[in-house]
């Protein structure tokens, strides 16, 4: 994210506003906010991959920010009737 100065040059903020806001709201450092944003991005990719691979068994991915930052993944058990053999 950047803005343009009157002379046409780009002004790139030292800390992105989203990171600054998140770090203050969650009482974490800007570096920790960056780490969490990177994890959120990776979780989005992982969610799409799981949805493709697991199909209807995939329930979802969600992120808990407090009391700890954690990523959860949920899936239904495989269909027992279809998986039993002979």
Keywords:
single chain; 86 residues; alpha+beta; two-stranded antiparallel ribbon; two-stranded antiparallel sheet; 20% strand
The residue ranges in which pLDDT falls below 50 over 5 or more consecutive positions are: 79-86
Largest sheet: 2 strands, antiparallel
State the separation between the terminal residues, measured CA to CA.
60 Å
Strand content: 15-25%
Tertiary shape: elongated
What is the number of helices?
A: 3
The count of β-strands is 4
**Strand/helix succession:** EEHHEEH
Helix content: 40-55%
Tell me the domain tally: 1
Find the structural class using helix and strand composition: alpha+beta
Mean pLDDT figure:
82
Overall description:
With 86 residues, the protein is α+β, with helices and mostly antiparallel strands. It has one domain (3-83). The protein is 44% helix and 20% strand. It contains three helices and four strands. The protein has helices at 17-25, 30-54, 80-83; strands spanning 3-4, 10-11, 58-64, 70-75. Strands 1-2 form a two-stranded antiparallel sheet. Strands 3-4 form a two-stranded antiparallel sheet. A hairpin with a 5-residue loop joins β3 and β4. The longest helix is centred in the middle third of the chain and has 25 residues, at 30-54. The N and C termini lie far apart (60 Å). 1% of the residues are buried. Mean pLDDT is 82; it is low at 79-86.
